[in-house]
Amino acid sequence: MSIPNEALHKLAREIEAQAAVSQQQIGLARTQMTSKQREQRLVRLTLSELAGLPDDAVVYEGVGKMFSSAPLPNLRQKLEGQTKELESDVNKLNQRLLYLETTHKNSREHIEQMLRGR
């Protein structure tokens, strides 16, 4: 039993649309992952700079357009929490990127299979 020509065209358009959406989302996920990794490097650099300071050192934290004095142990704890959160975000984005790349690859394979089978 053969699929009508019109149905094949409709199916091909749907798969092509899905592939285009996946490609767009792949670019967005890569951009977000790069941004999170950059932020993660900055937090780690800040933590390494703070590691050399004594616990009673006066440090300031940026709050909007001003700076506020913050106890060093609290600031370290906050930065370590940010590091863990960013690491989690990068892992989630990596999983999403893998899913999107697989979806895109499968869509392309389906289109090629339909064209060969025709």
UniProtKB/TrEMBL annotation:
Superkingdom to which the source organism belongs: Eukaryota
GO MF term list: protein folding chaperone; unfolded protein binding
Family matches, as Gene3D superfamilies: 1.10.287.370
Signal peptide limits: none
GO CC, one annotated term: prefoldin complex
Keyword entries, A-Z: Chaperone
InterPro entries, A to Z: PFD_beta-like, Prefoldin
CDD domains from the UniProt entry: Prefoldin_1 (cd23164)
PANTHER family: PREFOLDIN SUBUNIT 1, PREFOLDIN SUBUNIT 1-RELATED
Family per similarity comment: Belongs to the prefoldin subunit beta family.
Descriptive protein name: Prefoldin subunit 1
Originating organism: Purpureocillium takamizusanense
